């Protein structure tokens, strides 16, 4: 850095003077906040202690730091660092690091106000809620713990389940202003290094001023940010994250977010619930097939109703046709408007129930649905048949165990409705082909999202639409490209017998 005199001669500026001026400017900026404190101690150690009192632990300051400074005559920062019984202390003159660590809850100690070097002592206090039961991915059986907003607590929940030295935690700071801690978690020797490097590279390439929640990353790191399908699995369950880590996948946890992201993921993972692994494989497979059928019914039921009544009346059996005709005898609206009105009404009830307090939202959802549905039929705005179909479709959309894919299903129903109105079954087929083609091209951190259907991988079908017994799943999913693809030796499973055999 140089400054100009009037005679245009450049004179080098003293870097220590500039650094002191910068620290002085930082202190003056912090002093504008009422919760910032900077005290000058004189006896027996002459030093300046600065901190933000709302984010540090007061007991730690008064029991571990101030007694040391007031009972010993310490001459320099190295001497103070030696006497303070705290790990991760650091002496630095890097202004950026000083600013970041003060804002993260460190106590800054300088020998005098003009000193550019400072001792940084971690003293942050974290206010967070206690570990509670999952609210979005609730399960009847199995663990009842969910992530919270503290990164360290969330890592503890994973460490408790995976007591492995190979469990590796890498941290990245994201956000120009927020400086949010982001942990990338994998199991060394199992996770594919290419997948890990892809995740780290995409995180390091993010340029944004804030990172408040993990949902920000799903939009910033997605292979196709314009796709309505989520390309990262969002979960609040530590047991589910531990499970996919063992499969060779990568987990991402953001400080301040009660959810974790896992990748690479596939479309079938969004229809598998945690209960599928806590129940016998026969029941788990049956329930998973029911969910898949429910999703297909939710997407296609109302569009098929519009297509058949508008273009293909000959496909309706005579007995059922008489019922449909009698129910629509006094309906002034065409089928497409009738369906759109009901679909929008259900979406309004969903949004109202989600945004209102829990008890009020449940009441609005139940009472509003009954009252509006009954009134719509009596007023002649919709038919009884369509009301039943729409209600069943709405119920079917709630069977998805992952919230993000449920939102996608709510959205893609409307393109099917429009094409069914214009071209009937041909339009539905065209829309279906478009979405399948989109899913085939879609990727999750470079891995095929439509696996194991495309590319077809028979080995991964053991835990796709159905879940076979654990003793038949000796290999990890091919989609993860795990460095160690073997879970266990299948021959040993058949060798073991009860002692009385």
Describe the structure.
The chain has 501 residues and is α+β, with helices and mostly antiparallel strands. It folds into 3 domains: 2-122, no CATH class; 151-265, no CATH class; 281-415, no CATH class. It has helices at residues 15-30, 58-71, 77-83, 95-103, 151-161, 193-204, 214-220, 238-246, 281-311, 318-327, 335-355, 358-378, 384-397, 403-423, 425-441, 490-495, and strands at 2-4, 10-12, 36-41, 47-52, 90-92, 106-110, 118-122, 167-174, 180-187, 233-235, 250-254, 260-263, 443-444, 447-448. The strands form 4 sheets. A 5-stranded antiparallel beta sheet has the order 3-4-6-7-5, with helices on both faces. Helix 9 packs parallel to helix 14 and helix 11 (335-355) packs antiparallel against helix 12. It starts with a strand and ends in a 6-residue tail after the last helix. The model is unreliable at 1-18 (pLDDT under 50).
């Amino acid at each position: 850095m140089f400054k100009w005199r009037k005679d245009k001669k450049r004179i080098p500026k003293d870097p220590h003077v500039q650094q002191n001026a910068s620290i002085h400017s930082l202190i003056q900026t912090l002093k504008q906040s009422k919760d910032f404190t900077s005290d000058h101690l004189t006896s027996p150690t002459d030093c300046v202690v600065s901190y933000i009192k709302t984010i540090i632990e007061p007991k730690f300051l008064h029991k571990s730091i101030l007694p040391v400074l007031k009972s010993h005559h310490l001459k320099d920062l190295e001497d103070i660092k030696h006497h303070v019984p705290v790990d991760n202390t650091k002496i630095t003159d890097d202004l950026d690091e000083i600013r970041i660590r003060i804002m993260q809850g460190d106590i800054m100690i300088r020998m005098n106000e003009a000193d550019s070097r400072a001792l940084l002592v971690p003293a942050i206090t974290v206010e967070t809620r206690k570990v509670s039961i999952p609210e979005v991915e609730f399960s009847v059986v199995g663990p009842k713990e969910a992530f919270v907003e503290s990164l360290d607590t969330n890592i503890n929940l994973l460490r408790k389940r995976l007591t492995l030295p190979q469990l590796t935690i890498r941290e990245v700071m994201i956000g120009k202003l927020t400086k949010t801690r982001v942990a990338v978690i994998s199991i060394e020797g199992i996770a594919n290094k290419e997948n890990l490097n892809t995740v780290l590279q995409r995180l390091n390439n993010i340029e944004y001023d804030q990172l408040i929640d993990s949902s920000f990353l799903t939009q910033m790191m997605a292979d196709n940010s314009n796709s309505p399908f989520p390309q990262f699995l969002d979960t609040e369950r530590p047991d589910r994250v531990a499970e996919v880590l063992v499969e060779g996948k990568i987990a991402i946890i953001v400080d301040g977010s009660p959810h974790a992201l896992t990748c690479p993921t596939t479309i079938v993972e969004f229809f598998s619930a945690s209960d599928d692994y806590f129940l016998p494989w026969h029941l788990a497979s049956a329930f998973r097939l029911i969910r898949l059928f429910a999703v297909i019914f939710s997407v296609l039921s109302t569009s098929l109703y519009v297509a058949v009544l508008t273009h293909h009346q000959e496909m309706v059996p005579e007995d059922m046709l008489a019922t449909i005709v009698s129910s629509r005898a006094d309906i002034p609206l065409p089928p497409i408007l009738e369906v759109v009105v009901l679909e929008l009404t259900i979406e309004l009830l969903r949004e109202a129930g989600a945004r209102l307090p829990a008890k009020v939202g449940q009441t609005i959802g139940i009472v509003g649905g009954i009252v509006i549905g009954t009134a719509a039929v009596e007023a002649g705005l919709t038919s009884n048949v369509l009301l039943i179909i729409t209600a069943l479709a709405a119920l079917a959309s709630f069977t998805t165990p992952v919230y993000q894919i449920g939102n996608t299903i709510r959205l893609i129903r409307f393109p099917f409705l429009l094409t069914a109105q214009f071209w009937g079954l041909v339009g539905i087929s065209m829309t279906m082909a478009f979405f399948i083609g989109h899913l085939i091209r879609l990727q999750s951190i470079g891995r095929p999202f439509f696996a194991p259907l495309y590319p077809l991988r028979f080995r991964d079908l053991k835990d796709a639409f159905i879940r076979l017994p654990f003793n038949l799943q000796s290999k990890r999913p091919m989609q993860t490209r795990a460095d160690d693809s073997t879970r266990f030796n299948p021959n040993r499973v058949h060798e073991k017998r009860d002692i009385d055999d």
